[in-house]
Amino acid sequence: MLKKDLVELALLRLLTKGDQYGYDLLKKLHAVFPDLQESAIYAQLRGLCREGCLEQYQGDTSAGPARKYYRLTDSGTARYAALLDQWHTLRDALEEL
């Protein structure tokens, strides 16, 4: 499981807690992966939307521009479960060493 997969797992994990907007996801991921480029996170979000794992929608506007929110789909929930299973397998294998 490479860093890209870990970032995807982290994104999906955050979205299991409910709908979130892109910048909030970015801040949370930067706390864990400080060297991660903003463009890489948004590219991954777009890819997950294209694959049907996430849905994107416009939130209500406040003082600034409308926020893009992301929601986990059933396909995304299944993808999260599969990635989490891979993570547990890798973790268990490393513990065996």
Main sheet attributes: strand count, strand direction, barrel closure: 3 strands, antiparallel
Structural class: alpha+beta
End-to-end span in angstroms? 17 Å
Strand order of the largest sheet: 1-3-2
Spatial extent as radius of gyration? 14 Å
- The ordered H/E elements are HEHHEEH
Helix content: 55-70%
How do you describe this structure in short?
With 97 residues, this protein is of the alpha+beta class.
Highlighted features:
globular; 3-stranded antiparallel sheet; 97 residues; 3 strands; single chain; alpha+beta; 4 helices
3D structure, described in words:
- This protein is an alpha+beta fold.
- It contains four helices and three strands.
- It has helices at residues 3-16, 22-32, 38-50, 74-96, and strands at residues 20-21, 54-58, 68-72.
- The chain has a three-stranded antiparallel β-sheet with strand order 1-3-2.
- Helix 1 packs across helix 4.
- It is globular and about 55 Å long.
- 15% of the residues are buried.
Which helices and strands appear, and what pairs or packs with what?
Elements: H1 3-16, E1 20-21, H2 22-32, H3 38-50, E2 54-58, E3 68-72, H4 74-96
Antiparallel strand pairs: 1-3, 2-3
Helix pairs in contact: 1-4
